Amino acid sequence: MNERTQRLLELDHAHVWHPFTPMKQWVNQQVPIIDRAEGEYLFDTEGNRYIDGVSSLWCNVHGHRVPEIDQAIRDQLDKVAHSTLLGLGSPPSIELAAMLAERAPGALNKVFYSDAGATAVEIAFKVAVGYWYHRGRPEKSAFIGFGGAYHGDTVGAMSVGYSDLFHRPFVSMVFRTHWAPSPDPARPPQPVVDRLKMEDADGQAKCPACGPEADCTQAVFPSQCPRLARALRDHCLDELEAMLQTHADHTAAIVIEPVMQGAAGMVCQPEGFVRGVGELARKYDVLLITDEVATGFGRTGPLFACEREVDESWHGPDIMALAKGISGGYLPLAATMFTDEVEGAFRGELRERKTFYHGHTYTGNALACAAAIASLELFDRNRVLDRVAANAAMIADHLEALKACPHVLDVRQRGIMVGIEICRDRDTREPFDFAKQVGARLCAAMRPHGLIVRPLGNVIILMPMPAMSPETLRRMLDIVVETINGWKYEHLEG
Ligand SMILES: *Cc1c(COP(=O)(O)O)cnc(C)c1O
Q1: pLDDT of the residue at 228
Q2: What mean pLDDT value characterizes the chain?
Q3: Model confidence over 265-299: pLDDT tens digits?
Q4: What's the Cα-to-Cα distance from 326 to each of 72, 375, 376, rounded to whole Å?
Q5: 394 has a pLDDT exceeding 60
Q6: What residues line ligand 1, using a CB cutoff of 6 Å?
Q7: Is residue 486 within 8 Å of 442, Cβ to Cβ?
Q8: For residue 446, is pLDDT > 50?
Q9: What is the SS3 assignment for 89?
Q10: Which of 14, 259, 272, 449 sits most deeply, having the most CB atoms within 10 A of its CB?
Q11: What is the CA radius of gyration of the chain?
Q12: Do 321 and 292 form a contact (C-beta atoms < 8 A)?
């Protein structure tokens, strides 16, 4: 280890409190210190090169040091780095809002800026409650969230997120939320299992999803079984409807990570689920908030995940939260989008006191908006969504090889968002003990081969950047498959 790395590690251990990090263990680890980057690669202070397999935590889109985005930020820097949106306008924030409104699904047309996914979500929640308040329904102030949901780490976002591990010390701080079941193919609820008659005569599950039914696809991975998907969708929508019948009168909004729940371990929803939730929201007169902080900007295929489910029967979300990929992964920026209907509830005479008194100091930062504009232009110029489609197909193809490993319970994929769930035994679905840290160990084993990925518990998360080249993606997938299939799982026993 060189002197600079040594010194930086000592200072890091002395002063930096890392997010989501067990700090007692951290100080015994020698993690790479990332010094610079180039395209799809990160370089540490020792000169090692790694594929950035998590898009620098799900936000990088076109790679690092993209000439067009670098230039856009430099050009903006020569004008002004930041000016406030309180009482003033700024060209980048205006141009970006128009570009987002043009591309957003359904009737979303107004943009409120902030700086992080969590703040975008808090804004969505406050506007939802304010909307009903200004419409004379102040009792409609609760939320319906989905099991396993993650919306960020501020108090409001935590309240509609579901994690015993993350939230236990803070239960006294959060507001109460009604929980609807999320359709999770790897853990189907008993009524769904019963409905599908999963077990054959000897009480053994055959196909993990279907059992010996006629249209069983014999899917090895539960998330790939269409029959299970349909049964889960119908069950979860029925449960949601029952919940709305009881709670709609005092509920402001349903909040969903559409198509793919990210931090839950990449739990993908059956086709038509988002539309079904949207139709129920409309039927029971509650707003629908889609949190596309992770899924937005091409991750699941289309620019926004819920796009494919918008049609004549569903007009799209009333509110949508965006962050992560919005600036191409360059600068902290977030946007919450609204229909004119929702924003209109906050318009009135001054004496009516309808103004939305909310904002953050760096709201609509000019450098970040300039990066975001350049990123959206690159989506068009480089046909990034075509690249996503090709990359998604390559991922699905390569990961078929994981069927050979009896410790892979499920491979869940939507577009280029992937979760590979590891378990002790695929047939019994018995998990590895959390303390064995199997996900973290597998990811650590990939690092010497030049790949950085992160687990979520026992799920290995792959999040290649949407514009990743086929060559780099192939290399990344080879490392993942070889490591998982070649690992000596016996070492984890006993
Ligand atoms: C990451 C994430 C957030 C929080 O975003 P931050 O920028 O980390 O505050 C919110 N919602 C979803 C779905 C996310 O994946």
Answers
A1: 86
A2: 93
A3: 999 999 999 999 999 999 999 999 999 999 999 99
A4: 15, 8, 8
A5: yes
A6: 116-118, 121, 150-152, 257, 262-263, 291, 293-294, 323-324
A7: no
A8: yes
A9: coil
A10: 259
A11: 23
A12: yes
Give, for 341, the enclosing helix (H) or strand (E).
helix 340-344
pTM over 0.85: yes
pLDDT computed for residue 427 by the predictor: 81
Listed in sequence order, the residues at least 6 apart from 374 whose beta carbon sits closer than 8 Å to its beta carbon are: 66, 68, 69, 71, 72, 73, 328
Residues 282, 482: Cα–Cα separation, whole Å: 47
The contacts found for 398-403 with CB under 8 angstroms, 24 or more apart, are 398/474, 398/477, 398/478, 398/481, 399/477, 399/480, 399/481, 401/481, 401/485, 402/481, 402/484, 402/485, 403/220, 403/221
Measured in angstroms, how far is the CA atom of residue 150 from the centroid of ligand 1?
7
Of all residues in the chain, the percent with pLDDT exceeding 70 is 95
For residues 208 and 425, the answer to whether their CB atoms sit within 8 Å is no
pLDDT (average), residues 118-137? 98
Angle, to 10 degrees, between the axis of helix 273-283 and the axis of helix 226-247? 20
CA of 330 to the centre of ligand 1 (A): 15
Give the residue whose CA is nearest to atom 8 of ligand 1. 117
Lowest-pLDDT range of 122-131, 292-301, 402-411, 428-437: 428-437
Which atom of ligand 1 lies nearest, measured to the CA of 116?
7
345 CB-side CA count, 13 A: 19
Judge whether residue 213 has pLDDT over 70: no
Report the atom number in ligand 1 closest to the C-alpha of 152: 4
- 324, 327, 362, 463: residue to mutate for ligand 1 pocket, most atoms within 8 A of CB: 324
Q: Which of 122, 123, 259, 293 to mutate to test the pocket of ligand 1 (most atoms within 8 A of CB)?
A: 293
* Ligand 1 center to 381 CA (angstroms): 27
The answer to whether 384 and 61 have CB atoms below 8 angstroms apart is yes
Structure tokens at 437: 């840290």
Please report the pLDDT score of residue 212 as a whole number.
47
Please choose from 56, 114, 150 the residue to mutate so as to test ligand 1's pocket, defined by most ligand atoms within 8 A of CB: 150
Contact 221, 411 (CB under 8 A): yes
